């Protein structure tokens, strides 16, 4: 309602690049520990047990932080009862759930200067707030700014005699989207100091009472007055008589049904004698405004500082660019769009339109890193957290603004706020697939997932919830990738809690089963395996769920396929967490030798001297090779048939003299295993493929390990004995 747009009543403006303020950190600590710092009154409300007198600014910051953290309610509001310790001056309790009784007891004893009680939830009404504020003489004399947007005027128990007139010090009043009628407007217009008024979306039909404010009304916001029943001439006459008016908002939110420019707007633009001192005019949403009409309008009003032109068709000319002293909310360049995002944060339809144009702009142009724009988008998401239209287009904008390297130069705290909002959006719209995809696209960034501060536990759980609801391959791939990285950053305690969620383990196992069943060794499989490794690492409950859901059998099947034998797929398996998990299966005393053997096959292929080259920590490779060697020589072949082979071709490269002993041993153990099961069949196979020659070369190499020599010799003896018998 002010010429500069919506204003926050309180709360610190901190540099997002720098550290948080000490006062902010202290107040956040108080909010987190209210239970410990308070005792409980008989009515259940809290009171601080021992509290020094807070400076007024800190008191305002405390209630602001409680609102921001979502902890302000009837119970916690009790800490502000009385004024001995906490002195409030500027208060915003917007969108909180409060009762009229709690409001009266806690806030009406303070000498308030500003109060924003917009869109309160609960049984509280405009009448309740007025009665409470009027009950304190000091407050009646001090309150200068009051915003009551979106509240009911009366309840069944309210005093029907609604009156603003006792608040004689009021200078700014917002009653938009209430049931305010003509009698209410007349009451308001009796306030002697009122200079700023927002009556948008009310039931007012006649603006004549505004003439009582003609000597001091500076700002009038009056969009959405659909019941208004006045002729164009009457309206223009009233506006012409508001001699001090500098800001006028007569914009339109009905873009799809009623956007044709009305005569009053057109005549206002065409008549230079009406409101010649005007500095700010908002006509956004009225189609048919043209740059040609605006040029003489501006020439007659050299003091203009703002024009609202979004969704009007105007604004393409250089003199409307918004780059100079004249700010323009429009859609033709980034400057105009930023002004629109800032001005229309509270107005869903116009905000959504601005976001749509921003999305189109960022799709077409490289605008570089724009943290200020991202901050505006996030603010709109927070304000309209329940609007599917706003969330759909804003999440797409977030992706465009943080994609690739753009996020790296953004302030970490800003990115943290954005990520938390993305998580909230995913939670609010679990059944909207495109919103889920947009959020995951924005989250799929190593920089964001590894560096930015946010609640990774909450994020991982929310992404897993998304994964459980959709079968779309793209969405699955993104979800598993995000979860894998998030889980690797969690504390032991958080991993324990997450791993205890059965649906999470089952869903990841389902992904592994799905990818394995079609032979797909891709990033989805790799990330799912990595996430399972982290979730089951030293977490007994997760391990129990893993075993109860046939996780071990699935891993055995996966290892039997030995995907590491396929050269093109080895790169996908070169993941440290995954290799550590497979290494645990290699030498675990609680798994069967078959599982250990198949795990050894993956490790042997990845640590061999074949491509791709080892690109992880060299110490990890040495550990794997040492444990592979010691494990193989400790294995006892099972009595039953464990595996069969149509060819030994994948084994021969592992028998090269240049290979590490652990790799050679694994290959020899596998050959010996099946040769013992069917000497005649596999002897022929070895001879036909040149395997016997490979074994003889290996034995003749004086540099090979004695364990390798013994095992190779043993296989040759088995084969030669069979040949002699034949």
From TrEMBL:
Belongs to the zyg-11 family. Pfam families: ZER1-like_2nd. InterPro entries: ARM-like, ARM-type_fold, LRR_dom_sf, ZER1-like_C, Zyg-11_UBL_adapter. It comes from Pygocentrus nattereri (Red-bellied piranha). Residues 381-720 form the Protein zer-1 homolog-like C-terminal domain. This is Protein zer-1 homolog-like C-terminal domain-containing protein. The keyword Acetylation does not apply. SUPFAM superfamilies: ARM repeat (SSF48371), RNI-like (SSF52047). GO terms for cellular component: Cul2-RING ubiquitin ligase complex. Keywords: Ubl conjugation pathway.
